[in-house]
Amino acid sequence: MKRVFVNEKWCLGCHLCEYNCAFANSGSRDMAAALKGKRIFPRIHVEDTGDIHFAVSCRHCTDPICVKSCIAGAISKVDGVVKIDKNKCVGCLTCVLVCPYGALAPGEDGTMTKCELCLANTCGEPACVKGCPNRAIVYEERGDKA
Predict the structure, then answer these.
(1) Residues in Cβ contact with 29 at an 8 Å cutoff, skipping those fewer than 6 apart
(2) Cβ proximity of 57 and 4 under 8 Å
(3) What is the pLDDT of residues 73-92, one digit of tens each?
(4) Is it the case that residue 124 has pLDDT exceeding 80?
(5) Which of 13, 59, 100, 138 satisfies CB 3.0 to 4.6 Å to 53 for a cystine?
(6) In this structure, which topology does domain 60-101 adopt according to CATH?
């Protein structure tokens, strides 16, 4: 299965992946109208350790602990992609606590959000990959399992 991978050597820490993600998931056709002057809620997050920058997103684990831990049954794995049913999510944050990668976060409405590979939003590849100016984020299949 294809997943999002990050090469921290190439990450500039520019946060463009976050803006492209937030825009792709906004439902708007106008980036300025969707994001300007507003707090964004991307499904990918850039971390900064000082010398190293890297983007964190869901790894769509083979055996995801977030699915097992969700008390509302809102998280499931469909065709290899870990997804959240916003209608079932109660915002308890259990998934945030158990995810070893820090890939989940509360969204604007309090329900959890995470990368779902932009499968419902774009064609081809996730918005964070398309918007990365340094190609530090790639969407590809690799042999390793998360």
Answers:
(1) none
(2) yes
(3) 999 999 999 999 999 999 99
(4) no
(5) 13
(6) Alpha-Beta Plaits (3.30.70)
Strand positions, DSSP E, 79-136: 81-84, 105-106, 112-113
CA 20 – CA 38 distance, rounded (Å): 14
* DSSP helix/strand/coil, 20: helix
Output the CA angle 59-65-67, nearest 5 degrees.
90
CB distance 104 to 82 below 8 Å: no
- Closest by Cα among 124, 145, 127, 136 to 27: 127
The domain spans of the chain are 1-57+115-146, 60-101
* Long-range contacts, 16-20 (Cβ 8 Å, 24+): 16/131, 16/132, 16/133, 17/42, 17/44, 17/46, 17/55, 17/128, 17/129, 17/131, 17/132, 17/137, 18/42, 18/44, 18/45, 18/46, 18/128, 19/131, 20/127, 20/128, 20/130, 20/131
Class level of CATH domain 1-57+115-146: alpha beta
